[in-house]
């Protein structure tokens, strides 16, 4: 996933990916351990559905990704290309 394409980061397990595996008995989706990254073009967003081991880990990932997206978008174009 290109950092510049990330549009939104949502906590919770609200995505079709998580719904698809609800019938699998080996899959346990705790909403507080999940988050979804929406990326791509505005009208054709793709999802990256992720599950962490703890709620603290989810919060660290979300906070880090939000910072990384903001820092990347504020960077000058030559630096964005280099990254």
From TrEMBL:
Superkingdom classification of source: Eukaryota
Gene3D superfamilies: Pleckstrin-homology domain (PH domain)/Phosphotyrosine-binding domain (PTB) (2.30.29.30)
Residue ranges constituting the PH domain according to the UniProt record: 1-70
Listed SUPFAM superfamilies: PH domain-like (SSF50729)
InterPro entries: PH-like_dom_sf (IPR011993), PH_domain (IPR001849)
Signal peptide: none
The name this protein goes by in its record: Phospholipase C gamma 1
Species annotation: Chelydra serpentina (Snapping turtle)
Lineage of the species this protein comes from: Eukaryota, Metazoa, Chordata, Craniata, Vertebrata
